[in-house]
Amino acid sequence: MKKSIGVAGLVAMLALCATAPAALAQCGGQLLMKFDADCFAYESNATLSVLEGGFGAYKSNAGSQLTVVGLMTLFCTPLNGNVPNLPVTEYSFVWSGMTAAAATTEAVYIVNGKKWDTDYTPGNFFIYEDSPADAPRATTPMPANPPNGSVPVNFTDGTLILSGTISNLHTIVTRTNNTASAIFGGSFSADYQFTGGTQFGLVAGSGINALNGNWCGKYPTGCTPTGYTAHPNGKYDYAVTGVQNSTWGAIKQLYR
Amino acid sequence: MKVGSALLLLIALLAAAVPAAAQDEALLNFTGYDYQTDGSPNNVYLSLGDSYFAVGFITSFHPTWLQPYVDPGTNEYTFFQSGLVVNSYSFIGGVLVVTFANGGMVEYYEDPSKNATNPPNPPNCPAYGSNPPNADSPAKFSDGLLAISGSLDDASLYYDFNQDQGGFQSNMNITGGAYAFYVPAPSWNGWLMTGLVSPPPGGNPCPAPTGYDHQLSGECRHPVTATNHGTWGKLKKLYR
pTM of the prediction? Predict the structure, then answer.
């Protein structure tokens, strides 16, 4: 009996290790919020382009609706009071309302590789604090073919702490050549602005800032679980507008 | 003794357990900045012969291979990417594409001194310094315990100046380091990629460090080693 309890305890400890917090990380620079391994995108109308070697990437058709779900791993000043602590507390997010402004364009990359570019119309983001954590993750794994019973709904429960708009989202996926050993790369870049949420007061007046990072579209890999089109990995930047101490006298002088 | 052995084996199996459907997973995630040095005096970004570098911080780890063994509360986890020399160059329509000769490397460090983080942060800023290489960078990002080292082959970089956005990608094969043995040997070969954007002015609360070219946000992905499902009966048979 004691051995059984011991085994159960060890199993529980290992399970906890496997879902431990995503680690503290260093802030600084422009970084405000970071998301890493547990973020995936899916679309309503994307076509898989499989090239030589069996690897490919999804190309959006015009009007394809993009949804991104994920978990934040790091918050920096002034949001550093939020500490992701899986499996107790998660900070999940959803991007929605964006559609491919036109079909993905394809160009030659290096000599015989490919480069896919996609622009999206503006949309919104929503960040939730939720306990206990219930959103699926890359290692749980992500349930196939979203929308489904847990995607995106398990990313949109809890308290809405921040929301805002996303604009100028542009994604790039590259493939270095046309062989099975080709290296895939990718990136995304967008602008965002906070508009609401229970913590909006902490970031009110911050204006438009950058949202960017890596965009892994290689298929079939862990970047594209069944039914998902890409794996973003990136960050929200936050540039504080400079302020200068002054006096009423100095301000009056400006108008004389 | 048999129970003890079985217990150890069970622990090993659990520690290595991964979802069967996954084909690769993020080994490490990171942010940082990149910079170049001229192979010979020139005013062209990443021209032939120029060298490409990056430094920064690891932001999260593989949940079973590395996370149980790191302690970000006590240590900082940094990286230094080096040894990449441009061997082909193209700039057409505002899009830069370069490839690098094989022989690059990336090193991940565990350092209790936290001299790159430069705490308390805030109000202090990470020790990127200005115009690298300098007294802080890459030195403070490449000291401490070498946790994992890797070689970089078939590396390339693109940057679309029309979009002010680009990416870096490379094969990354683990070659050593104190934590390397936590990663199953069949998963040592993977790939590294990162998105690149130009640093904006301002910051939170630190300005972008002068003399660096881009901000990075990326990850190193490695294949997951398959595991077998078994029963207690089969497990016992191994020890009879």
Answer: 0.85
